[in-house]
Design a protein that fits this description.
Protein name: NAD-dependent epimerase/dehydratase domain-containing protein
Radius of gyration: 13 Å
CATH class: Alpha Beta
Number of helices: 2
Shape: globular
Order of helices and strands: EHEEEH
Largest sheet: 4 strands, parallel
Organism: marine sediment metagenome
InterPro entries: Epimerase_deHydtase, NAD(P)-bd_dom_sf
CATH architecture: 3-Layer(aba) Sandwich
CATH topology: Rossmann fold
Length: 97
């Protein structure tokens, strides 16, 4: 299998687990991180709240699958931050896809 998959949030628990699963299943996996430095050329540091960041997402690649896995769940965070990541960031991702 030579399908290409983009997984957002590969520095999180679920995203990193998905990354390993799909690599072991034969996919070419590309990923985004926020908190940690990327591991290789198929991973980039990425801020979903900034629309201009989407131009960094491998412009020459065509993905068969996109798994959007970025989100904030801590209800004590400011509303504006949660909205920027969870709502606006998801809208940006849908436009990109």
């Amino acid at each position: 299998m030579n399908k290409k998959i983009l997984i957002t949030g590969t520095d999180g628990f679920i995203g990193s687990s998905l990354k390993h699963h799909f690599i072991n299943s034969g996919f070419q996996v590309f990923g985004t991180t926020f908190f940690r430095t990327p591991n290789d050329e198929k991973e980039i540091q990425f801020d979903i709240t900034k629309k201009e960041e989407f131009s960094k997402l491998w412009a020459n690649e065509q993905f068969d699958i996109i798994v959007h896995n970025i989100g904030l769940v801590d209800q004590t965070l400011p509303y504006e931050m949660m909205h920027a990541v969870n709502t606006q960031g998801t809208e940006f991702m849908c436009e990109y896809a």
